[in-house]
Amino acid sequence: MKKIALILMGCGGVGRQLLHHIVSCRSLHANQGVHLRVVGVCDSKSLVVAPDAHPSELDDNFLLEVCRVKGDGSSLSKLSGFGACRVFPDSELTAKVFDIASHLGKSTGLAIVDCSASSETTEILSRVIDLGCCVILANKKPLTSTMEYYDKLVSQPRQMRHESTVGAGLPIIASLNRILSSGDPVHRLVGSLSGTLGYVMSEVEDGKPLSQVVKTAKSLGYTEPDPRDDLGGMDVARKALILARLLGRRITMDSIKVESLYPDEMGPTVMSVDEFVSKGLPLLDKSICERVAKASVSGNVLRYVCVIEGTSRCEVGIQELPRDSPLGRLRGSDNVLEVYTRCYNKQPLVIQGAGAGNDTTAAGVLADILDIQDLFP
């Protein structure tokens, strides 16, 4: 039985779902000759580890208790005294992770799985790579930090997986890597990479006011608590930056042109969430409606997309696209990416499917963990 030791960073929706997947897939993985050994779990305030990270692990009952405690909004520190585990405060978290990484990294192996949404994990991840550890990311922020950190993280490509940073569980990163490895140059990417904005744009296409669509999306749980976190386009911009860097563009977030769907005077420092939803959004209805009508005259539709083209173009915002194109036919919260290369020139490679949701994202992370199993003895 091949045993893969891992530390999970981040116990939000994706992290908890990953733990559920690990527990529920025990028999499947056993048939495949693999055992995922969770030796530590941390949130922003605490690290919980097995008594001895070398031979032991946190058992499945404990992992499910982690899910329950974090689902209730409590800190992992609440688990002190529950079962045979050790709890370390945030002041000792980094040192303890390094301690475990130095012991396991180059012996039995260790995977650090980042399902957080924090930029503070970047320093830890860039250092554990040198200790022989593997890094699995759902968190986009480490890969959208400075080029120095990016170069460090991707310096050992066999030890690094980040499929779930773009398109949840869709095989976007893997497909692009295969294309690039074959020597087929990618000259254009166009993608709708936000399930929220994909839903919004397909609904306004049907004539519904933007304000009504956003309110519905918020009630369905499609948006962040503050819809401006989605409507501002920064999440899509981070995904665009990851893809652009994968293609060899040495750019930063400042290099990306980002179109926000709301003006600065409706920003979080000016309007509360309730004010924005009730008073700000209705003021945006007319302009979006006019843009939809204008596009329709030409047989086009509006989609919020990222466009990466040539050596310099990288932008995020609303584009007019043919109604009968893969992006034009997009409905609901699916993600779609069109890949144009030498081989896929007139007819692009199209990757489409559910691009959001904790379940889908966690499944992508789990697949990434299993993909590195050959690096473990």
TrEMBL record:
Keyword set, alphabetical order: Amino-acid biosynthesis, Methionine biosynthesis, NADP, Oxidoreductase, Threonine biosynthesis
The protein's required cofactors: a metal cation
Record-listed E.C. numbers: 1.1.1.3
Superkingdom classification of source: Eukaryota
Class of this enzyme: oxidoreductase
Chemical reaction(s) catalysed: L-homoserine + NADP(+) = L-aspartate 4-semialdehyde + NADPH + H(+)
Endpoints of the signal sequence: none
Family matches, as InterPro entries: Asp/hSer_DH_NAD-bd, Bifunc_Aspkin/hSer_DH, HDH_cat, HDH_CS, HDH_short, NAD(P)-bd_dom_sf
Aspartate/homoserine dehydrogenase NAD-binding domain mapped to chain residues: 10-162
Record domain Homoserine dehydrogenase catalytic: where: 171-370
Record keyword Repeat present: no
SUPFAM superfamilies recorded: Glyceraldehyde-3-phosphate dehydrogenase-like, C-terminal domain (SSF55347), NAD(P)-binding Rossmann-fold domains (SSF51735)
Pathway(s) it belongs to: Amino-acid biosynthesis; L-methionine biosynthesis via de novo pathway; L-homoserine from L-aspartate: step 3/3; Amino-acid biosynthesis; L-threonine biosynthesis; L-threonine from L-aspartate: step 3/5
Keyword Ribosomal protein among record annotations: no
Family: Belongs to the homoserine dehydrogenase family.
Record's protein name: Homoserine dehydrogenase
